[in-house]
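haha ok so turns out i had the wrong file open the whole time. this is the CORRECT one, sorry everyone. sequence first:
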Amino acid sequence: MSGGSSLVTRLFWTTVIGGAAAFVWGMPAVAATGVGLALVLLRHLDRPRRLRRLVRRIASPHARTLALRRRQECFVDAYGNTIRDGWQRERAYFAERTILPRLEARGLGEEGEARWAEILEVVEAVAERVDLPDETDVPEEGIAYERHCAGRLRAAGWQARTTPASGDQGADIVAERDGLRLVVQCKRHGRPIGNAAVQEAACAARYWSGDLAAVVTNAGFTPAARKLAAATDVLLLHHDDLTDLDLSAIRRAVAQDR
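then structure:
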């Protein structure tokens, strides 16, 4: 039932019941009916605010991930334009897969679709409020960036080493922890990473007998790279993800692959 027809129904039955009560109790019932109608209208007028509050509550547990994706998927092109296409796709994906199902479960699916733009605005605001670590301390140069990522892995409990500059077959870091070997390719770029890095990481994992491969970057990933990574079980990570890699999730991924 749409919001409009639902409102009409509630107003109708409030009026009918109030009118019937007025025959018995007179003016007090008429006054009570007026109050009831006012409450119905006020509740209806408050629906947009309540929907936004609900969307914010659903999105808030994912705030840091959203903020990270926002940083990854936005970049400045050669002409000085801020390109947000990747983030807009990611934001819409999150809203479609995470927000709408929760709204539908509460009977608010139609209203959610009708207020799609508002939902995206709330998701944007949730991501924007997160204070992410400053990126200025992250090295720009390739080898220094690889060492930086290896250091983050070591801080998280991995035994991580960078590979030689030549003959690495696509691997920049080989990291081990609790019997798992993770082969990592690092990319410090100003725009989203494409398919080639995913292909190289997958091949490097085989060459280095890795259990799992990952591409780590400060930037985001193209849709094609994400699709290929899903098909080849390559992790796509931001360097901030390295400090709290979910080892149990990695184990599950390795077990499924085997």
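The chain has a mean pLDDT of 81.
again sry for the mixup
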